[in-house]
Amino acid sequence: MLQNIQEEQYLENLAGGEFEREPVPASRWKGWGSFLGMYAGEHAAGTEFMIGPLFLTAGVSAFDLIIGLLLGNLLAVLSWRFLTAEIAVKNRLTLYFQLEKISGKSLVKFYNVANGVLFCFLAGSMITVSATAVGVPFGMEMPALDDTLPNGPLFIGIVIAVGAVIALIAARGYDTVSRAANWMSPIIVLAFLACGFVALGQLGVGSLRDFWNIWGEGSAPFPGQIKYTFWHVLIWSWFANAAMHVGMSDLSVFRFAKRASAGWTTAAGMYVGHYMAWIAAALLYAVYLQSPEAQAILAGGKAPDVAPGPLAYNAIGFFGIIAVVLAGWTTANPTIYRAGLAFQTLLPKVSTFWVTIIAGTVATVAGLFPAFAMKLLGFVALYGFILAPVGAIIVFEHFFYRRAGIRKNYAEWAGISFNPAVLWAWAISFGLFYALSWQFDVFLSFFTLPAWLLCGVLYLVFSRRWQKPLAA
């Protein structure tokens, strides 16, 4: 026992406390409470203030929104529990180190750059969301739905200040990120509930029928948006976090879990955040759409602004501002933490603290461009589609490598830095379905699952062919 404790302490010192290239030792495993707060905070968060209103701009109906979200979020929870958490507690490695063992050091670097940068862009959109709240007391001009560039020096200054604080929290490591989420999440959840009830009162809702009629049979999408049906809502809500669950990014989080059952805690994020909070935020936007200002904008052929700060402030005052700021932080913090781990593989001699600061800097720069927040539905679909198929390689190898007759962690075993089976499996699946989406103008999220399945199958087929000479 003493020897085991000494070994764990050695590993902890060696890995700087974050175990980027070592399995997490038993002394650092965490109970389900750590994950419950983190997922509730991360997903009842800044993205929710954007996504809820954006569903309305896509003209969803009541049935499509309420039932589509119910089922789509269930599929997401099942993906986390039976894929991500299951593999995480078996290996207890980050996504990046696990992938390195399979694909080799050279190939994994390209993935890590793409992964880290995309996570930074997502975190940047949340910095923009927080900035819309901080800017309310200063009379900041809010970014419009079709804005791409920053709209003034005040917006730039607020984004930089918010980004600096978020980066410092994320750079202090998983424990700090988890503690921050546990502290902030109850406040954010309370704010979403308050916003929802206030909005219902402002809309004159007195019965379930009144509530249902807010969306009714849906409407035509706003200018510049596409029409969302039931299947758009279900598939998009399932794969809104595709990179985290079927894409295996949350191996980096659940490697700290005592048991795979911790994966069920993601339900707190999905049903408090991606269900209750999305609907509450949509109600806030529904109130705004009834205002003379919004009606005038619509009459002019444009989409009314989707700025979370003013929407929440109009409902619950300064408490709404605080909630939006915290909501942006609780999404950006773990996202920047994940991006820092990705960059760590490229800069192994640099401490986790400083690579996370680098990730936070990239995210802050991204936050200066409102398009990442205002086009969040499309961006989330794209980044999940890019990253999810890589997770299929880990999943299919973990569950099927014996049946397929291939060697697990082949690059590590063979001492190679480039495993062509990984590259070709991803490139073919990504290229084929992206081309189909572009050619036939099909919603990209509809192809995430087919691309994921094809990538996993191709990896097994190519591995069986290309491993054979070296494994003999």
From TrEMBL:
InterPro entries: CodB. The chain crosses the membrane at residues 65-89, 110-134, 154-171, 183-208, 228-247, 268-291, 311-332, 353-374, 380-401, 413-436, 442-462. Keywords: Membrane, Transmembrane, Transmembrane helix. GO terms for molecular function: cytosine transmembrane transporter activity. GO terms for cellular component: plasma membrane. Coiled coil: none annotated. This is Purine-cytosine permease. It comes from Neolewinella lacunae. The lineage of its organism: Bacteria, Pseudomonadati, Bacteroidota, Saprospiria, Saprospirales.
